[in-house]
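DEPOSITED CHAIN:
***
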Amino acid sequence: MTWGFAEMRYPCPHLANPMLKTPPMTKRIEARFQKCRQEGRAALVTYVMAGDPDPETSLAILKSLPRAGADIVEFGLPFTDPMADGPAIQAAGLRALKVGQDTVKTLDLIRRFRAEDQDTPVILMGYFNPIYVYGVDRFLADAKAAGVDGLIVVDLPPEEDDELCLPALKAGLAFIRLATPTTDDRRLPAVLTNTAGFVYYVSITGITGAATPDFGKVASAVERIKRHTPLPVVVGFGVKSGAHAAAVAQGADGVVVGSALIDALKGTLDAEGRATAGSVEAVTKLVKELSEGVRSVAKRAAA
């Protein structure tokens, strides 16, 4: 399936304001982008699935990401019907569900990560159904207590902000929205309203890991989005290598990589889908390559 909700068109009351006011970022997200700006580079954002292939290996991978060069980590919340995700992330979610990963256990992994790392922003990414079943108020309180900084919930459009976005902002969690190649200038202000932390630009029309983006078009899209918001714009979907990361970093404030990391992990699993001695290292090796790619592109350092 494709990102159908992003292709919908609604009347927008914000067209008269080309630079929307946005809610403040959480301290960790803001500090991390500021650090990257001071270093004159884009941020590296890495995605892995909670509980894949088992909770302890998942935690070990999560802890290894910042050490390997990740600036921000996205942690996938497993769900049975991940409509925006390609085969790699779908399989990762199924592996996690098979070993009993759920929302409570995912928040516990983040809590354990926070015991050792108080600085790296953690974004929980997934779908609304598990959060709805958990209970929105309970979820937001528990996520905040566990050390979550923001949420990406891909199946909640702006018209449903009352369901989770506004309560999340009130609770002090960034609600990060996605823009796509089909999000035109008429729709974009609505997408950006109430967005906080950063804007996630989906570089292709389709599912995760499905294709390699046209890097020239990505840069133009980022410039267009930046005309509407002061927030950092990060780009994901289709980035698989250090060279890809460097190409995206030319124009974006951050580069997101997910499916490639999931594939690196999958390549180390045994015939039963269990972790092996090389599982964590395979992921960190690719993160280091991606980090080198991002850091190879010099940007104007912030004062």
